[in-house]
Amino acid sequence: MTYKNNKMEKVLITGGTGLVGNNLTNLLVERGYEVRILSRKFTTKTNFPTFCWDIKTGYIDTDALKDIDYIIHLAGENIGAGRWTKKRKKIILDSRVKGSELLFNTIQEMGIKPKAFISASAVGFYPAFRENEKSFSEDDAPGTGFLSDICVKWENVADNFQKTGIRTVKIRTGLVQDKDDVALKKILQTSKFGVLPVFGTGKQYYPWIHISDLARLYLTAIENDKLESAINAVAPQQITNYQYILAIKNAIAKNRIIIKLPEFMIKLLFGEMSEILIKGTKVHSKHYEEIGFNFQYKDIASALEEILK
User: Fold this and answer.
1) Check: CATH 3.40.50.720 for 10-181+208-234+283-296?
2) DSSP readout, 224-279?
3) Where are the domains of the chain?
């Protein structure tokens, strides 16, 4: 993959202090971009110019958008941070949809037209199953249920940018693999007690991507004008929950015991949120070859080897 030359273009990132945002900002600076962060509150956790916004009140510091070349919208409440109560589900949805709407309305009012709007989305867009062999691509229709509904509404707002002539990319991301990922940390914590958990049957597919490859894909979305609409941010290797846990076992200590947590127990513990554990989606992308994107981590073994070294 060949990147264009450094032009000191300006990139605004929402959610820039999160897991993906931190990795992406470092890569962008390395490539010579000027990065700005749009945050819910001023923070000293970043070395980049930080501007504030408030989705609830509709406030945004418009200085963040002046002379901007690209907007990367990563901000969104963590879907796995707590039980999906009615209030919690509204927060999760609003953080994505209303955030996108605020960005769109603001650039319209300011008369700004960035070169591209790049929005996070998720593989939750597609139907989820306990066991399923169909592999979904960007051409397939969305599923039903809370996760799919979020992604559809999220992407519908992104499409408003496209309708005004702004190149728009929607990056449907799988499970991000990184040493600081909360889900992986929890799994590794259980390994300290000699066990590793498989959820339900373990036959549900878990689309995944290494954090470095995800950051490079966002960079490609900036620099490759051929990339528009949706793209599935998932590694080539398609694995089940059981295969994922087995790979972790092989990477850390082969004397760990893999145990299956029954579906009813997972539902008791997590309620409706258990859906993200006991269901999965088999996903691939049809775009990587045409945009010349090559993965550094094509299989879960190499990804975990780098993460857990």
Assistant:
1) yes
2) -TT--EEEEE--S---BHHHHHHHHHHHH-TTPEEEEEPHHHHHHHHGGGGHHHH-
3) 10-181+208-234+283-296
Write out pLDDT tens, residues 60-71. Answer: 999 999 999 999
Q: In the chain, where do the E strands start and end?
A: 10-14, 34-39, 50-54, 59-60, 70-73, 116-122, 135-136, 167-173, 175-177, 195-199, 208-210, 229-233, 257-261, 282-283
Question: Could you read off the pLDDT of 256-293 as tens digits, one per residue?
Answer: 899 999 999 999 988 999 999 999 999 999 999 889 99
Predicted model pTM = 0.93
**Beta strands 34-39 and 10-14, pairing class:** parallel
Amino acid at 173: T
Torsion angle (degrees, nearest 10) of CA 34, 56, 97, 111? -50
* 3-40 pLDDT tens trace: 454 468 999 999 888 889 999 999 999 999 999 999 88
